[in-house]
Structures are given as structure tokens and as C-alpha cells.
Amino acid sequence: MIGAVKAEVSKLVTLPSPAITVALTWAVTVLVRQADPPGGAVPYSQAGVLVLGVLAAGHEYQRGGQIRATLLAVPRRPLLFAAKTVALLVTAGPAVFVAALLAGEPGATGGLLLDLLLAAGVATIVRHPVGATAVVLTAYQIVVPLIRNGLPDVALPPAPVWSAAIIAAAAVTFHRRDA
Amino acid sequence: MVSQVRAELLKLLSLPTAWVGLVLGLIAAPALALVSAGGTRRAIENGFHADASDAAFQPLGIGLLGALILGVVVMSSEYTSTGDDSPGARQLQATLAAMPRRWRLVAAKAVTLSLLVTVQGTITAVVTLALNRVVLGDLVPAAAPGRVAGAVLYWVLMGLLAYALMLIFRNGIVTLTVLILNISVVSFSYLLTKVTPLAAYLPDIVGTHMFLNEVGDVRIAPLTAGVVMTGWVVALLGLGGWMFDRRDP
């Protein structure tokens, strides 16, 4: 397990795209905070965190089919999925905390980490980074605000329930589906 | 040119993601008009809208997502690798072997996208506005044909904007993130209008003046808005085409 987590961490740390996403998220958060938006800067950092989650899980499915090499090295899929989740939390956790600090709301870290895991889960299910980005951003920034404002009578389950459901669905599909 | 447009149309319509964009664009706005009918009715009755006719057009600003996806897919599909075992080979290389003149390829894709989004936008606008008349009755006045045309033109120009950004960034994630955020509640362009009034002339903000009467605090005539937005899109397409012309496929 430790070896698998270490391998996943080194993959995440050495890829350029997550690093660029983190840098852009920090920069955008700082800039947006200067403009003092009505809802705070967190929704903007959230967009970056969602993209980060998608990239972290989705990079295996980009050109080259890296996932098959990964599964050859770690064939036990539940173990690999757990290792990926732990590695994502360990590497992206500090980055997300810094983003929340920059947004001026360190308390938002927990919520952002749930968003991160949810985005990673969606990317694992969709297996297509661009498509997964479209899905999570549309859901978070357009559909949910619309439902909240337009249909106040609909009770939405809280964020942890959503994240847990998506992660469970991702774990099951990852376990059962052909790579 | 006709055969090139036909080839591009055939390619685009055989992509599952393009159909997601097409269908999403067609159903999102009418569905939104239906589910938010109660809220819209309350907003109009409470005098939230200074101009009630805007309420009928508002769902079109979100259904736009379909046109954006089409604009991204028309180019991002070319950069997808053709197979897992040949990550270096992209669809674009086959396309360029068939159509070596790059500016003509850029133009053929732009024409294909415009045709498709015009059809999609017209159907969506007519259906959404008709639905609004049914569910809201006389609360909203009948839509002026000029404004409907403005809304369709906005869709086409936003689709072309997405295509231009794809040509520049060659990355669907960057383009989609920027554009989806900008049509959502946390729009960067809208935030910028709070910082400087000049931001009202950013392409996605200025274009809405073609079919909405109250956008922010600035009033811009529909014709001016159309000209400014077209200018932005032409300039960005020019830049994207120039970069596409120079870069290795």
C-alpha cells in the first residue's frame, strides 16, 4: 500500500498540468480577492480545485493509455483506487489549504477537499478529462446555483453525501470495468 | 470550399461529444424556462425586472453552453490521439494531409460551426420563447424578431469565440473552464465590470446587449454591441488562425 501511494504521489508531483493548475488557482484567487466579489473568492478557487481533481484522476486516460501500465504494476484495483485517493489528498491537500488561505477563508479547506475528491471521482467514471471538466464545472457553477435560486423548495443533500456517493460510484466502476 | 465544409460537417456530426453539445443546447434553455417559470413569474410580479421582456430571453444565456461545447469540440477532436497505442498520431495530421491549406481549413471549420449553431440557436430561441408565452402568458410581451436574431447571433459568435480560443490554447480544459465560468454566476467578465466600466465591452458581456435590455448599469445599442462583439471574434479568430498557420500540427 505504501509503495502504491508513493508511486501515485510521484506521478502527481512530477506532472506539469496539476502544478500549472495549482499555480493558476492561487494567482486567480489573489487577483479576484482584490476585486472583492459579493460571494467571496472561494467559488473561483473552487473552479481551479475542480480542474485539479479532474486532471489528477484523468491524466491516466489521456493519450497513451497510461492506466494500463499502472494496472500492470498494481493489479489490485481496490488497493490502487485507495492509493490514488490517499495520494491525491496528501499532495493536493496543502495546495488547497493555501488556496483557501489566499481566499481569506481557511475554513473552506474541508469543503474544497470534498469538491476535489468529487471531481476526481467524476473523471474516473467519465475517463475523458475535457468531458469531465465540462460536467463538474457545469454542475457546480451553473446547475446547482440555478436550482438553489430557482427552486428553493428542492432539498439538496449536503456536500459530503454527494462526494461520498460519487467516490463510491467511481470505486465500483473502476473495479469492474475493463481498463 | 463546399466539399471542405461538407467534410467538416460529416466529421463533427459523427462525434458523440458534438451530439452532447447539440442536444444539451437544444434542451437546456426550454427546460430552464419550464422549471424556473414559478420563480420568473414571482420576479416579474414583484417588479424585479425593469423590463419584463428580458425575463423571456434569460434562459438563452445559459442554453448557450451547447454552442460552446460545439465550438470546443470542432477543434479539440483534431488534437485527440487516434489510438491508445499511437499517442503521437492525431486526427489533425490526417486532416491536414487532406486539406493542406491551413487558412481554408480554419475557414471551413468556422463556416461549419456557424451553420450548425445557427440552426441550433434558432430552434432553441423559438421553442424557448414560445414556451415562455405558454407558461407565463401575458406577463411577457411577444418577442421582437430583431431580438431573436440578436440572440441567435450571440450564440453563433460565442461558438466561434470558443473555437478561436481552442485554436489559440489547443487545450479544451482551459477553454471550457474560462467560458463556463464566464456564463455562470461567478463570471470573471462580470466581476471586471465592477472594477472598470470598460469591461462592459468584453465580448461575452457586450454581446448580451443584442437581445437583453438591462445588462449591468451601461446601455449599449444592439447594433453597436453586435459590431463590437463581431470585432472581438474576428480579431481572435485572426490571431488563432495565424498561430494555427505557423505551428506544427
UniProtKB/TrEMBL annotation, chain A:
Keywords assigned by UniProt, alphabetized: Membrane, Transmembrane, Transmembrane helix
Give me the segments passing through the membrane: 12-35, 41-58, 79-102
Q: What's the protein name? A: ABC-2 family transporter
Lineage summary? Bacteria, Bacillati, Actinomycetota, Actinomycetes, Micromonosporales
Q: Which organism is it from?
A: Actinoplanes xinjiangensis
Q: State the superkingdom.
A: Bacteria
TrEMBL record, chain B:
Q: Which residues form a coiled coil?
A: none
Q: Which residues cross the membrane?
A: 12-35, 55-75, 110-131, 151-169, 176-200, 220-244
- UniProt keyword annotation of Transmembrane helix present: yes
Q: Which UniProt keywords apply?
A: Membrane, Transmembrane, Transmembrane helix
> Has UniProt tagged this entry with the keyword Transmembrane?
yes
Q: Which protein is depicted?
A: ABC-2 family transporter
